[in-house]
Specification:
Largest sheet: 3 strands, parallel
Shape: elongated
Helix content: 40-55%
Oligomer: single chain
Bound molecules: glutamic acid
Strand content: 5-15%
Length: 494
């Protein structure tokens, strides 16, 4: 059996788009599944639009997602001589020809076709120019493009798309397309095929927006005497208004780095993206890497376009809520030690990191993450909603402040008193902390909830969270006492 060889060939003209990441994931999964190779090729022939920054962004994005490639990155510009040689080979074999038609001539023909409401296709004026005429034009310095000579055959040319079935076109519907510009630069359509032949690519999984190229590329493979790879065209991803998701329309939410910055777990994003256009056939949604590699197949890529559930200006979510749900799932269930590594940079960025969290205070740190993660959505929440666990300087939310503190003036007396009792305890633990709070409520004939909710707000700044006494023990007696004694400051602000 020949080895399967797949490729991810991004054009480095912007950041890594989540659609591009999905393409990379599908190719990577299929390479892994079949024990094959993934080749990374940077298609950087568009000198004006390709940037070093974009190349770096793509490499960083793939690395962050955990997509490993086996060969490359190769750069398309390093193989320009291959592209030129292929064009020459096609000319030499009579499978391509030089076309001297000027832009003005072609525009005039196109206008006539439009006026007659017929479809325009190149009419083959230069297809059979005698060799002397070609030589004469060249000697006169007339500019020319090179066109592929579509075989003059009856019937259809096609390929078996692994997702969409047999795709075909009549030879006579395909115009003699340009493969080399008048500047001498080969076009993408040709370069892409030449590189895939050289890289011995066996399977091409790409977006269905490339389908317009594929039939012409099949012709090129045949003309270059190369085997045609297996094609699988993936559905597009559309927003709720059925528009293709794009930077122009949707902004940064289409960029992989946006998810990194917003505290996504890489595998959560990957798992979500893979399901935009593929399903296992049952209801399984959460897959480990190994499970997904096992389950993945080209046949189960959906034909229908997938929906990215996002509406611009939707204040509640910053991206598709399903993507957030995937992140929550992994954040709340992954091994805590792995989570700790991911949380660290977010705490560092807010000045909340203590090196001891990796050494002496590691046990405390892991316990704390485990305690608070159940309500969190993204890694940024640990530094924002979770700030009170790592610092005495944290904000108090408006709602609990009003509801649980300002409404109960008595807390100014009760909480400092409770602080004194906590200080006097021999042992500060779940039971003793709770007992002292309840005893206090009984003494003053108030509901325990008043003390407990007031305490939650004063100690964490939040309305809700884990069990109050777990919180107290985790935050520690010293900090708890300090915050309870400081309760008065909250009344002064308002
Ligand atoms: N450079 C092309 C792109 O980024 C690659 C297309 C293909 O997969 O053949 O769209």
């Amino acid at each position: 059996m020949t080895e399967t060889r797949l490729r991810f060939p991004p054009s480095p003209t912007g950041y890594l788009h989540i659609g591009g990441a999905r393409t990379a994931l599908y190719n990577w999964l299929y390479a892994k599944k079949t024990g094959g190779k993934l080749i990374l090729r940077i298609e950087d022939t568009d000198a004006e639009r390709s940037t070093q920054e974009s190349i770096q962004g793509i490499l960083d994005g793939l690395e962050w997602l955990g997509i490993e490639w086996d060969e490359g990155p190769y750069f398309q510009t390093e193989f320009e001589s291959d592209h030129e040689a292929a064009a020459q080979k096609l000319l030499d074999k009579g499978k391509a020809y030089k076309c001297f038609c000027t832009k003005e001539e072609l525009d005039a023909k196109r206008e006539i076709a439009q006026a007659n409401k017929t479809t325009y296709g190149y009419d083959g004026t230069c297809r059979n120019l005698p060799a002397e005429k070609v030589a004469e034009n060249e000697a006169a310095g007339l500019p020319f493009v090179i066109r592929f000579k579509v075989p003059d055959k009856e019937g259809t040319i096609g390929y078996d798309d692994k997702v969409l079935g047999h795709i075909k076109a009549h030879y006579n519907e395909i115009e003699d397309f340009v493969i080399v510009r008048s500047t001498g630069k080969p076009l993408y359509l040709l370069c892409n095929v030449v590189d895939d032949i050289r890289d011995r690519i066996t399977h091409i999984i790409r977006g269905s927006d490339h389908m317009t190229n594929t039939i012409r590329q099949v012709l090129l493979y045949e003309a270059l005497d190369a085997p045609v790879p297996v094609f699988a065209h993936m559905p597009l991803t559309l927003d709720l208004n059925k528009a293709k998701i794009s930077k122009r329309k949707h902004g940064e939410i289409v960029a992989v780095h946006f998810y990194k910055e917003h505290g996504f777990i890489p595998w959560a994003l990957s798992n979500f993206l893979v399901l935009l256009g593929w399903s296992s056939g049952d209801d399984t949604e959460f897959f480990s890497k190994e499970e997904l590699i096992q389950a993945f197949s080209l046949e189960r890529i959906n034909k229908a376009n997938s929906t990215f559930n996002y509406r611009q200006g939707d204040a509640k979510f910053f991206t598709d809520p399903k993507a957030i749900a995937f992140n929550e799932h992994y954040l709340r269930t992954m091994p805590i030690e792995e989570l700790a590594v991911m949380v660290q940079p977010f705490l560092e960025a807010e000045g909340l990191w203590d090196d001891a969290y990796a050494t002496d205070k590691k046990e405390w740190f892991l316990h704390t993450l485990d305690l608070i993660r159940d309500r969190f959505h993204t890694l940024t929440d640990f530094a924002a909603l979770g700030r009170a666990y790592f610092s005495n300087d944290f904000p108090v939310e408006e709602k609990p402040l009003k509801k649980n503190v300002l409404k109960h003036e008595g807390l100014k007396e009760w909480l400092p008193l409770l602080a004194d009792r906590y200080e006097a305890l021999d042992d500060f633990n779940l039971e003793t902390a709770e007992q002292a709070a309840r005893d206090l409520a009984t003494e003053f004939d108030i509901k325990p909830g008043v003390i407990i909710n007031g305490m939650r707000t004063v100690v964490t700044g939040q309305l809700a969270g884990p069990s109050m006494f777990d919180i107290l023990v985790t935050i520690g007696r010293e900090n708890v006492i300090r915050r309870l004694r400081d309760v008065e400051t909250l009344y002064k602000v308002k």
